[in-house]
Amino acid sequence: MSKTPVVAIIGRPNVGKSTLFNRLVGKKLALVDDRPGVTRDRREGDATLVGLNFRIIDTAGYEDEDAASLPGRMRQQTEAAVAQADVALFMFDSRVGLVPLDEEIARWLRGSKTPVILVANKAEGKAGADGILESLSLGFGDPVELSAEHGEGLVELFDALLPYIEPEKNAAGEDIPHGLDEDEEYAPDAPLKLAIIGRPNAGKSTLINQILGEQRLITGPEAGITRDSIAVDWIWHDPEREHGEDARKVRLIDTAGMRKRANVQDKLEKLSVADALHAIDFAEVVVLLLDATRGLESQDLRIADAALQEGRALIVAINKWDIAENGSSLFNGIRGALEEGLSQIKGMPVLTVSGATGKGIDTLLKVAFETRDTWSHRVGTGELNRWFEKAVEANPPPAPGGKRIKLRYMTQAKTRPPGFVLFGTRVDQLPMSYQRYLINGIRRDLGFGAVPVRLTLRAPKNPFDR
Fold first, then answer.
1. DSSP letter at 277?
2. Cis peptide leading into 417, omega within 30 of 0?
């Protein structure tokens, strides 16, 4: 199978790169705001344009700053994106016209080996006519005039991309449809969707860079560097599998650090936190990353509870273990606090890792795959009801007001997360304590371990209700 073409969008801050990215991928994946510098890491997505299928990269606004500074580290990510791209879309704001930074970017691009397509954004109406005329001095030919916000000019963009990207055909000579199905059925060899969540500066981006073996995400001492949730596809070679069968696909999702809600006042940080919560929705397994130098805080429990409320399988990883002090007491203290603070889930995996040295990464990925298998497990109706009859016989439901609650049978209605339906009469009066008894038994006896299990109560319709 041929390599998917890669297109990078570059330009100075706030010219509309993320808006075009969202339009081409068909989803609002990248955060968009009026202020410059919203995008920091490079974000990738699968794009389609009139039958052209390609990988699109949204980059941070190019700024001429010292390489050690945050803008300088952002620029390095942009340069890496252009180096791997088959073609670059150099975007400028046609209404503002060219500014010195545009000319600096043009000089840099003329020295690169990547073909460049000049894109004049915000060109709706005649407001950008002067800027478009001025852009001819950059030496990239006539710009593609478009409006990323309103979707104008996309046919012209298609014509400009066509020499670099051929429409994919199937055996019958028809265009191959494009797009990922987020609701695809579970298959053991499907990519593991693994989200890393936690408080700011817990080391999420550093850990992912260590896993990937490259500086894919921007890191540094500043808290809150990550804003968008960034998904990166990767192949993990499982050391416990035979060669040739060891390649396992992983989609790693880095998220913005989540502070206490009372401390989040900035609009952009609110968008970043909302984006992180949205990333949890699309994950299968969520890793809550703790900072070993700070231990477990109440905010960590809130973040973990948010993942469990969404029904996601949860793993707790203690990062920076290479510099932790009093490791044994720290580990036992965190485990005990988790058992108390997240009492709805018992036996949750707690691991130690180091984003700096790579310690514990293979164990983390192995447990993540095992946890996904458990989260996707389905038990047969016969086996389930044999267990159910024994559970009810060992501990019959109470009889509130002297009236018996009759529990008839149970079925597993769904997986990912596991969901069960309990049928019976007067189940609306079944105490929560008894429901927890059943859920804990399902986890303990039927192989669901420490994953969220949901129980729904159903009563037959009463023909005399009317």
1. H
2. yes
- Residue 281 zone, left/alpha/beta (φ > 0; ψ -120 to 50; rest): alpha
SS3 per-residue string spanning 395-407: CCCCCHHHCCCEE
Residue 14 and residue 138 in one domain: yes
Among 161, 181, 203, residue at a domain's last position: 161
Tell me, yes or no, whether 172 lies in a domain: no
- Single out the residue of 378, 326, 387, 318 nearest to residue 348, CA to CA: 318
Q: Is residue 219 part of a domain?
A: yes
Which parts are annotated binding residues for GTP? 11-18, 58-62, 121-124, 198-205, 254-258, 319-322
Cα–Cα distance list, 286 to 231, 253, 360, 371 (Å): 13, 9, 16, 10
Indicate the annotated binding residues: 11-18, 58-62, 121-124, 198-205, 254-258, 319-322
C-alpha–C-alpha distance, residues 195 and 296, integer Å: 19
- Least confident among 183-197, 208-222, 326-340: 208-222
Q: Is 374 in a helix, a strand, or coil? A: helix
Could you tell me if 258 and 348 lie in one domain? Answer: yes
Query: Which range of residues forms the domain containing residue 25?
Result: 6-161
Residue carrying structure tokens 């339906």: 421
- Residues 139, 140, 146, 147: what is their CA dihedral angle, to the nearest 10 degrees? -70
What are the pLDDT digits (tens) for 127-178? 789 999 999 999 999 999 999 888 888 888 988 998 888 765 433 444 443 3
Distance CA 102, CA 269 (A): 28
Q: Examine residue 466 and state whether it is found in any structural domain, yes or no.
A: no
